[in-house]
Amino acid sequence: MRRATSFFLLLFILPFAAAAIDLPRDFVKAHSGQFTQGGMVVLHLQNATRVSLNGEALPQIDGRTVLGFGRDSALRHEIAFQRKGKRQNVAIKLKPRQYDIQRIDGLPPAMVTPPDEAWPRIIAQGKLKKKARAIASTQRGFSEGFVWPTRGRITGVYGSQRFYNGEARRPHFGIDIAAPRGTPVTAPAAGTVTLAEPDMYFEGGLVFIDHGLSVTSAYMHLDSLRVKVGDKVKRGDMIATVGSTGRSTGPHLDWRMFWRGARLDPALLAEGNPDQ
Ligand SMILES: [Zn+2]
Hints:
The chain is mainly beta. The protein has helices spanning 2-13, 109-112, 119-133; strands at residues 28-33, 40-45, 50-53, 56-57, 64-68, 76-83, 86-93, 101-104, 153-156, 161-164, 167-169, 175-178, 184-186, 191-200, 204-210, 215-225, 232-233, 238-242, 252-259, 262-264.
């Protein structure tokens, strides 16, 4: 009995436990975030420090830079630091994650496999999303900390392998928060709106916010949009309301986070629980 209990606790705690990674003080004043699959880490650098991840230079703003790791990221990475003629390479090992399996049955077949005539629209909308996410600005909302964009019960988590009507589909990359239609959705951190579309095929009402250095957040299935492309938002500003538009089975917010091409786990960014 005791053994079973501690096994469950371990499973529950592992994905959220911070990896003990020491970064050299000669280069890094402080860091926040978690070195885990799906994690985003912000480094506060000493003056005049240059940093690269796996050989690729990372841009910075006000002495801060950000790096992220996707759902299935390799576990080993190398961060190289350079400052005033000194160099140091740090090998890091991410905490691996375990992901749930989620089955959603009873969906209309067209929601599981889009009909042929929907594909031109889906492809055009895919390009729109890619273009909006490619914006790499130098604002610093990414470094100010994130809060939950709405309140409600978590009904879907990051990374879970999904089966729709028994058919395997892509993993779920967002966190689903159930809330009544019309519940305010607020910006979890400062940024600029880079996409505001009321009627996407999969996402329905969709908003993207650029938080700087290629960190983008996305909000799906929105009922009404309260922002337009180019709007600057502060943390807590209302951007939309919760809805059930697009491929959705009930009112909820699907919140997603991206760093470059990597999809990050929003639940690792916001403190506490949205259901309070
Ligand atoms: Zn979702």
